[in-house]
Amino acid sequence: MDLNLVNKLLLRFMGAYPGSRFAYALQDEKTLALTRHEWIDSLKDYSFDENALMAAFHDAKVIHKDVPSIAEFIELAKAKSKLFKEKSEMERREQSIKIESSFDPLKEQEAEKARQQIREMIVKMRC
After folding, report:
1. Is residue 22 within 8 Å of residue 66, measured between CB atoms?
2. Is residue 83 a contact partner of residue 125, using CB atoms and an 8 Å limit?
3. Residue of 27, 124, 112, 45 whose CA lies nearest to 85
4. Phi, psi of 68 (to 5 degrees)
5. Rounded CA separation 40/63 (Å)
6. What count of Cα atoms within 13 Å lies in the side-chain half-sphere of residue 60?
7. pLDDT digits (tens, 9 = 90+) for 34-88
8. What gap in Å lies between CA 109 and CA 119, rounded to an integer?
9. CB distance 7 to 36 below 8 Å
10. CB–CB of 40/46 below 8 Å?
11. How many CB atoms lie within 10 A of CB 21?
């Protein structure tokens, strides 16, 4: 897990929850280093990209009144990562169908269905 990404995440949590015990505790350098280590260690087994982590952070702000636990955050990140992967797969599928439909007009219906699924996926990601 990228140290800069974890630092960015922790700073964003501190900014989003300025009066929390979390933000207060991280003013101490030792606590900040320990917290940073725990987050890095907990996230290292996952292949979350920055987009999934930042989308999970956004969800956390909406859902949680205080900074979520690492376990709660990982669940949010898993859900966002899954949505991003599904969206990417749908886009690849649409591209493939688009190429095929240029040779076969019957494939156009399948292409439209794929486009609709992508639109629905984008709406889900915004929620």
Report:
1. yes
2. yes
3. 124
4. -70, 160
5. 23
6. 27
7. 999 999 999 999 999 999 999 999 999 999 999 999 999 999 999 999 998 888 8
8. 15
9. yes
10. no
11. 10
Domains: count for the chain? 1
Report which of 3, 11, 6 is spatially closest to residue 74, judged by C-alpha positions. Answer: 6
* Tokens encoding 52: 């999934």
Cα 78–chain centre separation: 7
Q: What is the pTM of this model?
A: 0.73
Is residue 81 within 8 Å of 49, Cβ to Cβ?
yes
Domain that holds residue 109: 3-126
Residue 5, both tokens: 């990404």
- The answer to whether 6 touches 43, Cβ cutoff 8 Å, is yes
Average pLDDT over residues 88-95: 82
H-run or E-run covering 31 = helix 29-43
